[in-house]
Amino acid sequence: xxxxxxxxxxxxxxxxxxxxxxxxxxxxxxxxxxxxxxxxxxxxxxxxxxxxxxxxxxxxxxxxxxxxxxxxxxxxxxxxxxxxxxxxxxxxxxxxxxxxxxxxxxxxxxxxxxxxxxxxxxxxxxxxxxxxxxxxxxxxxxxxxxxxxxxxxxxxxxxxxxxxxxxxxxxxxxxxxxxxxxxxxxxxxxxxxxxxxxxxxxxxxxxxxxxxxxxxxxxxxxxxxxxxxxxxxxxxxxxxxxxxxxxxxxxxxx
DNA sequence: ATGTCTTATATAATAAGA
Length: 254
Description:
Layout: E1 2-7, H1 11-25, E2 29-33, H2 44-49, E3 53-57, E4 65-69, E5 73-78, E6 89-94, E7 97-103, H3 113-132, E8 139-144, H4 157-160, H5 168-178, E9 182-184, H6 185-189, E10 198-199, H7 205-208, E11 211-212, E12 215-220, E13 227-232, E14 248-252
This protein binds one DNA strand through loops.
């Protein structure tokens, strides 16, 4: 099962790129974030013609998550207690694997109200995993975590530690979440630093490779030994009218 | 380094979120 995650930053704008990328990369399952449309506007027909079932949960203007799958989607759950109503989490079951598309809050700036919301979101997500039971559940939680796990995942760690995405408090929240028993799929197979999934539009970060690896695919203990490949596909970030994020992939031999 | 992209309101230009 080839799983991908991509924050598309508006599916309305990025749909042609998504369809092109699906035909190129041929993933089995794709988690999307920031579709920025209500569920009724989701392009189920175009996605269907590309060979994918879809589960989507959107809202007006902001956020919005979806899961696309070539394989049957068996269950769909929107959100979790404590999420405070924003369309940021969609849980599916595909081939017996819990596949979660997550769009964690940005946090704005340390000390802000949105930073506190990000903290609450992470705590609620951990509580949600605890409610799933043991980490022997085959589970892949994929998405835009808006936190880079380690210094090697950030182009300027000292600067980033003062802002959102690599602040010491955030590292603690992410660690508490993943201490449930989650493994960063890329790091199971590749230790190279300087690999990013997001580059700021404002600073022209992509051309200078000044980015952060804030999009990840985390797998539970049950899937850890089955991860055979994991990589970041930087090509779509170079396309015209690109999202500020690029797809992240993991191959899991079920 | 307040820069760039997206959406909403509204139908030109600004605000907000990221």
